[in-house]
Amino acid sequence: MLIRRVVSCALFALMIPIALIKPSTAEEGGKRYSLEEVLTLAEQRNPSLAVFQSNVEAARGAFTSARAYPNPEVMIELGTGKPLDPPNADSGREHRLELSQSLEWPGKRASRTRAAEAQVGVARGNLDDFRLELRAQFKEAFFETVLAQQTAQVAAQNLATARSLVESATLRVESGEAPDLELIRARVELFNVTREARRAHNRLLTAKTALNSLLAGALGETFDVVGAPPRLDAAYELPVLIERSLATHPLIVRQEQALKAAGYTLSEQRQARVPDLTVTASTGEEIDKRSSAIGLALSVPLFNQRRGDIATARAEQARAQAELAQTRLDLTKLISQEYENYRLAIDQINTFEEGLLKQADEALRIAQLSYEQGELDLLNLLDAQRVQRVALLEYYDAQFELQTALARLERVTGGLQ
To answer: What pLDDT is stored for residue 367 in this prediction?
Structure first.
């Protein structure tokens, strides 16, 4: 009897922190955010997105500059002059006005304009790709928080069940229906469940903090997230995903635009071998005459025929072509990998929903009924509870794996329809 009292006192001392665990994970006074609301906040609050948007505006500005024509030049000369003959002639005022306009070779201007326009496409591709990355990052953080909430809720339910089990075991022991060992087992189980609940609560706090920090604290101090179950009715086929991705993914679009820009830059350097023409018109008045003239000026490509610039542009075009091919290979590989993860997650969900969860629930129900009728001991009841708890947690984990697999599949394919 003394030993049982010592053990009971020790277990009671270990169970003192139970009161620190909240039975519910709902935040009092906090707002509940859906996935779309979190993604909207991400678009509004992420500073890196503004950087990519500024890059698009800068590329548009460069395109506007590339389309501009060169400005005309005006030269005015004022002065005095004196004729040499006769030597005693009076001095007089002289002036000269000259207007010049550079006429750029049309082929060079057209190539430069198209190259700048393609660079706008490159900047847009970078922006769209970053949006995909941003969505995937926030989706994973959101679903991690959903999983942590579900785990904490299961832990809170287990804690309530363990407390009820201790009360039931106490009554059974006091009435002589069960040995003292049954109460000890119930208290040990309560201690273990309490520890799991504390860990689940800490995991939830960590997940919420991580999600909120990505949004610079926009979710507030207390909040909750509402996650919808993953869709199982949408069927995706790998060949279709790869074909669409290789045609529309922002990385592909970006590299295709970069290849166009490199090609137009090469054309511009080749066209630049033709010199620009400068047209001048002038009029002037000197001491002894008035004059007007029209002239043409151009540089002679004798020493510099832009061989180095052409070679550099050709190399840039070859590199852009290689990068496009490598991007296609990388995307095909990534899509195949993420598609397999998606199919595996679907299979896991189906395994649980087609019978495993119901079987675990039914086994627990039968065990509880048998225990209440005295046909089953506490140890077997605890085993049934653990099996049901593990099955439920693994089911939630499978849902999380499916949601994250879909988020990553959306990232590498450029969007799921």
So the answer is: 80
Closest C-alpha to 333, from 258, 412, 266: 412
- Looking at the DSSP bridge assignments, the partners of residue 30 are none
pLDDT of residue 17: 36
| pLDDT tens per residue across span 339-390 | 999 999 988 888 888 888 788 878 878 887 887 777 776 767 777 777 888 8
Burial of 293 (0-12, 13-18, 19+ CB in 10 A): exposed
How does DSSP classify residue 26?
P
Which of 116, 97, 43 minimizes the C-alpha distance to 262? 116
Specify the DSSP element, H or E, that contains 81: strand 73-81
Contacts for 86 with CB less than 8 Å, ≥ 6 apart = none
SS3 content of the chain, % helix, strand, coil (to 5): 70, 10, 20
pLDDT in tens, 57-79: 999 999 999 999 999 999 999 98
Contact between 147 and 225 (Cβ < 8 Å): no
Q: How many CB atoms lie within 10 A of CB 169?
A: 25
DSSP state of 20: G
Stated pTM of the model: 0.78
| Cβ pair 132, 414 in contact under 8 A | yes
Q: DSSP secondary structure string, 156-193?
A: HHHHHHHHHHHHHHHHHHHTTSS-HHHHHHHHHHHHHH
3-state secondary structure of 222: coil
Residue stretches of the chain with pLDDT short of 50: 1-29
CA distance 168 to 190: 13
DSSP string for residues in 14-47: HTGGGGGS-S--PPTT-EEEEHHHHHHHHHHH-H
DSSP 68: P
Closest by CA position to 25, among listed 204, 235, 206, 273: 204
CA 175-178-182 angle, to 5 degrees, is 125
Name the strand (E) or helix (H) holding 281. Answer: strand 277-285
How many Cβ atoms are within 10 Å of 23's Cβ, its own excluded? Answer: 12
Question: How far apart are alpha carbons 71 and 65 in whole angstroms?
Answer: 12
